[in-house]
Structure formats: C-alpha cells, structure tokens
Automatic annotation (TrEMBL):
<dbReference type="GO" id="GO:0016052">
    <property type="term" value="P:carbohydrate catabolic process"/>
</dbReference>
<keyword id="KW-0081">Bacteriolytic enzyme</keyword>
<dbReference type="GO" id="GO:0016998">
    <property type="term" value="P:cell wall macromolecule catabolic process"/>
</dbReference>
<keyword id="KW-1015">Disulfide bond</keyword>
<dbReference type="GO" id="GO:0009253">
    <property type="term" value="P:peptidoglycan catabolic process"/>
</dbReference>
<comment type="similarity">
    <text>Belongs to the glycosyl hydrolase 25 family.</text>
</comment>
<keyword id="KW-0732">Signal</keyword>
<feature type="signal peptide">
    <location>
        <begin position="1"/>
        <end position="31"/>
    </location>
</feature>
<dbReference type="InterPro" id="IPR008270">
    <property type="entry name" value="Glyco_hydro_25_AS"/>
</dbReference>
<keyword id="KW-0929">Antimicrobial</keyword>
<keyword id="KW-0378">Hydrolase</keyword>
<dbReference type="Pfam" id="PF01183">
    <property type="entry name" value="Glyco_hydro_25"/>
</dbReference>
<keyword id="KW-0964">Secreted</keyword>
<dbReference type="InterPro" id="IPR018077">
    <property type="entry name" value="Glyco_hydro_fam25_subgr"/>
</dbReference>
<comment type="function">
    <text>This enzyme has both lysozyme (acetylmuramidase) and diacetylmuramidase activities.</text>
</comment>
<keyword id="KW-0326">Glycosidase</keyword>
<dbReference type="GO" id="GO:0003796">
    <property type="term" value="F:lysozyme activity"/>
</dbReference>
Amino acid sequence: MHRTRTRRITRPAPFALFAMAPLLAITPLLAVHPASAGTAAADDPAVPPRGSAWMGIGVLAHDGEDGRPVEGRAARTEGVDVSSHQGDVAWPTLWDSGVRWAYVKATEGTYYKNPYHPQQYNGSYDVGMIRGAYHFATPDTTNGATQADYFVDNGGGWSGDGRTLPGVLDIEWNPYGDACYGKSASQMVTWIRDFSNRYRARTGRDAVIYTATSWWTQCTGNSPAFGDVNPLWIARYASTPGTLPAGWATHTMWQYTSTGPTVGDHDWFNGALDRVQALANG
C-alpha cells in the first residue's frame, strides 16, 4: 500500500503503553487526569495517563492473543476505529483499501476530548464513509447520565443524514485501576442503563455497546438486560466472535484485530453495506 504524507501514528499495544506511561504523561495530545478514588495511584508507572485509553485497550491484556487468521466468508463490511493514537488519519488510503465505515473516539469520562476528533470524524465522512463516535466509559469518575451528556455535547451526537452511526459506549477493562471500576455487578448494570437511557433521550437513538464477553461476565454478572435494545459490538481477537454476552443472539459489529493492515483497529460489520446504512438511518 502506498504511503501518503498524511501523518500516521502507530498506536502501541496495551503492554507497551503501560511501559511507556512516563513518556505518555508528558505527551501533549493525551490529557492527564488525577486518578479517582479506588484506582491506582496517579504516579504508578504501570498506569497510563487518564485520557489515553482506546477501544480495546484491555482486550489483548485480558482476552487472548491478536493476529490469528479470521475464518468465514459471510456478508460483512470492513470498518476501523481510531483514537488520538492515530493522529491525522489518511482516510483516502483507508477508503482505497476497502474500509467503508469508521468510529472515532470522541470522549472519555468527563475530562477528556480527543484533539484529533475533527480531522478523524469529518475526514472519514468526506471520503464517503459512514461514521460515528465512541465514548470510553469510566464508571468510577461520574455517573452514566453525566457521561452520556458529556459525550453528546462533545462530538458524540447523531443526525439522520444517512451517514452518521449511533454513538458507542465503550465499556471494558479499566486501564487505570480495578477491572470493574470498583462497582458490583448490579451497580455496573445501573451505570450502563443510566448512560443508555440518557443517550436515547438526547439523540433518539440507542447507543451501541462495545464490550468483551469475559469482561461483561465478570463485571455485569453476564446481564441480559441490554440485548433487546442496544446493538452489540463484540471485541474478540480470534478466528470467530465466540460466545456472546447474555441477551444478544447476534452481534452487529466485531472488532477482530488491533493490528490490521492499515491504521487503527479493524472491524467487520455483520452484513453488507446496506445494513450499515440501515443502522445509520435508524
């Protein structure tokens, strides 16, 4: 694949990121936020700075290896997800490689906004992709409704233009401390429900839930409460999506690798392009 002069930043793997935490702490594009109660100390070199999380940061560390062949030829549509770690993205290159949809990190908690969001969000749209935004949840810092408001107010909204996907709640292992953010299973379900309800009230759409089955089982008690409402984006770096969390009979999207042939994590939409368009249209 030819290179463009557009800036590309290779995102480190989770273990590498932890090792680089002292360096990342002084990198201007990553907002540093004091660790909240119940998380590891802010000066712990094993803990990355607040704001630096991305979709899938815990998957490699907790849920299997990356890079194994992906099997099956069912109808599917290639997508990517990106964050500030990718910097300015070469969207024409991704389009030429066959990518047709994208999700961009907009926010984290109520303390971080992706400084590359405008280039990534608008750039993907400008080349013809169907795009949306995601929010990295930190349930130990503020409640779900508050974080949904912050997300919508800072790039995570939805419009019925046929090219904008509903927002995603990225709920996974806590890179800054306790895996379940210090919450019991019932407390976590309440937090997710509060986020989902507020997002729907603000946008008229149900948020997509991105998670891994092992985290969902550990931290929600494998709750079936959202399967009838929220589309599922499953994270599993293996040859198949595997067993899904309770409540979902099928997945809408599958993040199958963090080391795709082009920038960002790579994903498959479970259907042809017209199904991606249907999700955008609501």
